[in-house]
Write a structure and sequence with these properties.
Elements (H helix, E strand, L loop, with lengths): L6 H4 L13 H15 L11 H8 L3 H13 L3 E3 L5 E3 L10 E2 L13 H15 L2 H4 L2 E2 L5 H15 L7 E4 L2 H12 L5 E4 L6 H8 L3 E4 L2 E2 L2 E2 L1 H11 L3 E4 L13 H14 L2 E5 L13 H4 L4 E6 L11 E4 L3 H12 L4 E2 H13 L1 H24 L5 E2 L5 E5 L6 H10 L2 E2 L1 E2 L12 E5 L6 H16 L11
Parallel strand pairs: 3-17, 6-7, 6-10, 10-11, 11-12
Antiparallel strand pairs: 1-2, 4-14, 5-13, 8-9, 12-13, 15-16, 16-19, 18-19
Length: 464
C-alpha cells in the first residue's frame, strides 16, 4: 500500500541548491533522482503541491513546474489528477533503449537550453518579420549571417573576410553542393578507407566515385595520395582531420602540411570537413588555414552545439568558387531562415560561446566516464570529442556485437558502416552525446563493458 507523507516533511529531499550546479529546475530533478536512488522517496509516495514546494524552497512557482515537467519526462513522477503528484513505479530497464550510435553533442549540465531558446527567439522577433522567418532563404546568408560565420570560424581560421563565408543548411547539404561544384559525372574523390558515411553516399548518388587512399597512424599517407591522384585523375580530396569520424584520431600538423602541398602542386581541391575542431584539445590548424587558396572548409554547428541548429559555414578560396557552390546548393536545398537566424543571434550575443563551453565541459566528463568503464576493453581509443573508437576482443565481430547490444537495449555503430572496401577493422564507434543524463550513459557503458567481457553465445551469431 502506498504511503502518504505530510507534504512539508516530504520536502526534506529537496534542499541544498548549489551555485554552479545547473539551473534550479534541473537541480529539483536531481534531488528527486537522488532521493529515489537512496530510498528517501519510494514508488507511490505523494509529493508536495507545486505551490507549497515553491514556498518551502523560496523559489518561484514556474521553476518548480519546469522541474516537475522534466521529472515526468524522465518518468520519475506521475500526476494522478486531483490526488496530486506521486513517485512513479520503476520501469523495466530492458524496455529502455539507449542510442550510442548517433554522433550528437551532449546536453550541457549547466546550460538552461530553454532559457537560451526563449531569449534568442525574443531578440529575433524584435528585429525580424515573422513571415520572412518562415520562408526559404537562398542567398547563402545575410550580411549578419556571414559576419556571424566569420566570427565563429576565427578560432580555426583566424580573421577572415565575411565575403569568404557562406551559411547553408547543414554539413550534408554543403558537402553535396561541393561535390556538384567541384566535380563532374564519373569523377573521382579521394578519402580515407574509414570515414563519414554521408560523403560516399552523396558522391555515389550524384554519379561520382570514391576511391580510398591508404593511411598510417597519422592519417592519409602522402605517397599513397600522390599515386591515387595520378591513377584516378582525382578532382578532390575529402578529409576529416580533427577527431576523425569514426576513429577519433587527429592528424598532426606536419602531415596536414604534406597533404596540402601535394594538393597544391597537383591542383587538386581539398574538402575539409571539420565539425569537431572546437571540441579537441590543442588541435592543429586546419588545412584551410595552412593553404586557404586550395581548401573548401566546412564547419557545422550540429556537432558542437546542438543538432537542432541545422547550420554550417563554408569558406572558399575565391569568389568564383562561391558562385559555383551557391548555384549547386540551390538545385536541391534551401536554408531554413529560422534556424540560421537563431544561430546568428546566438553567435553575436554570446549564447553560442556559452553553449559551446557547456558542451566542451560535458564532453570531457563523459570521456572520463568512458575511459573508466571501457579501459579494460582491448584497443580503446579515448579522446576529448563526442565519440569513442573501440577495438573489440577477438571473440567478437562488429555485427555480432551490435546485434547482442541491441538485445540489451543499446545501439552502437559497427566499423562496417564507415569502411570502404574489404576487411573492415574489428571495432565499433560509441557515441557519448545521446544519453539524456550522465547516469543513463554510465548505466549504458557498464552494460556494454559487461557484454564485451563475455564471449558471444550461439544466439549472437550473425549470418551475412
Amino acid at each position: 500500500m502506498s504511503s502518504i507523507h505530510d507534504p512539508y516533511k516530504e520536502a526534506v529531499w529537496a534542499s541544498g541548491f548549489t551555485h554552479g550546479d545547473g539551473p534550479r529546475y534541473l537541480q529539483i530533478v536531481k534531488f528527486l533522482e537522488r532521493a529515489i536512488a537512496d530510498g528517501s522517496l519510494r514508488a507511490g509516495d505523494r509529493l508536495p503541491a507545486q505551490r507549497q514546494l515553491a514556498e518551502l524552497l523560496k523559489i518561484d512557482l514556474t521553476t518548480v513546474t519546469r522541474g516537475f515537467t522534466e521529472a515526468r519526462r524522465r518518468q520519475l513522477i506521475e500526476a494522478r489528477g486531483t490526488l496530486g503528484t506521486f513517485v512513479a513505479a520503476p520501469k523495466v530497464e530492458l524496455t529502455q533503449s539507449v542510442d550510442l550510435s548517433m554522433n550528437i553533442p551532449p546536453p550541457p549540465a549547466d546550460v538552461d537550453m530553454e532559457a537560451l531558446l526563449r531569449e534568442g527567439m525574443s531578440q529575433i522577433l524584435m528585429r525580424a518579420d515573422a513571415d520572412l522567418l518562415m520562408t526559404y532563404h537562398l542567398s547563402g546568408g545575410s550580411i549578419a549571417d556571414r559576419k556571424a560565420g566569420a566570427r565563429w570560424l576565427k578560432p580555426m581560421l583566424g580573421k577572415i573576410e565575411m565575403e569568404r563565408v557562406v551559411a547553408c543548411p547543414g554539413a550534408q547539404s554543403a558537402l553535396a553542393a561541393l561535390i556538384l561544384a567541384l566535380t563532374g559525372p564519373g569523377d573521382v574523390i579521394l578519402m580515407e578507407p574509414l570515414g563519414y558515411p554521408g560523403m560516399p553516399m552523396a558522391t555515389e548518388q550524384l554519379g561520382r566515385r570514391i576511391e580510398a587512399v591508404a593511411v598510417d597512424e597519422y592519417g592519409m599517407r602522402p605517397d599513397s595520395l600522390e599515386r591515387a591522384c595520378a591513377e584516378h585523375n582525382a578532382r578532390a580530396i575529402y578529409l576529416n582531420p580533427t577527431l576523425q569520424n569514426p576513429t577519433a584520431q587527429t592528424m598532426p600538423e606536419k602531415r596536414r602540411l604534406e597533404i596540402a602541398r601535394i594538393a597544391a602542386r597537383l591542383n587538386v581541391k581539398v574538402i575539409e570537413d571539420d565539425p569537431y575542431w572546437l571540441l579537441a584539445d590543442n588541435a592543429p590548424p586546419p588545412l584551410a588555414r595552412l593553404v586557404p587558396e586550395q581548401v573548401f572548409y566546412v564547419s557545422t554547428l550540429s556537432k558542437c552545439l546542438s543538432p537542432g541548429l541545422r547550420t554550417a559555414f563554408v569558406t572558399f578560396p575565391d569568389l568564383q568558387s562561391e558562385h559555383s557552390f551557391l548555384s549547386a546548393l540551390r538545385t536541391f536545398s534551401s536554408t531554413s531562415m529560422l534556424t540560421t537566424t537563431l544561430a546568428t543571434q546566438w553567435i553575436h550575443d554570446g549564447s553560442a560561446a556559452l553553449l559551446l563551453a557547456g558542451v566542451q565541459a560535458e564532453s570531457r566528463v563523459r570521456q572520463r566516464m568512458a575511459t573508466g568503464t571501457l579501459s579494460g576493453a582491448a584497443g580503446g581509443t579515448l579522446n576529448h570529442g563526442i565519440h569513442v573508437w573501440l577495438t573489440l576482443p577477438s571473440y567478437w565481430r562488429p555485427l555480432n556485437l551490435c546485434a547482442a547490444a541491441r538485445k540489451e537495449g543499446l545501439l552502437v555503430a559497427p566499423s562496417t558502416a564507415f569502411h570502404r572496401g574489404h576487411n573492415p577493422p574489428n571495432a565499433i564507434r560509441i557515441s557519448l552525446g545521446r544519453g539524456r543524463s550522465r547516469d543513463e550513459l554510465d548505466a549504458a557503458l557498464r552494460k556494454l563493458s559487461k557484454l564485451l567481457a563475455q564471449k558471444p553465445s550461439v544466439h549472437d551469431e550473425v549470418i551475412v
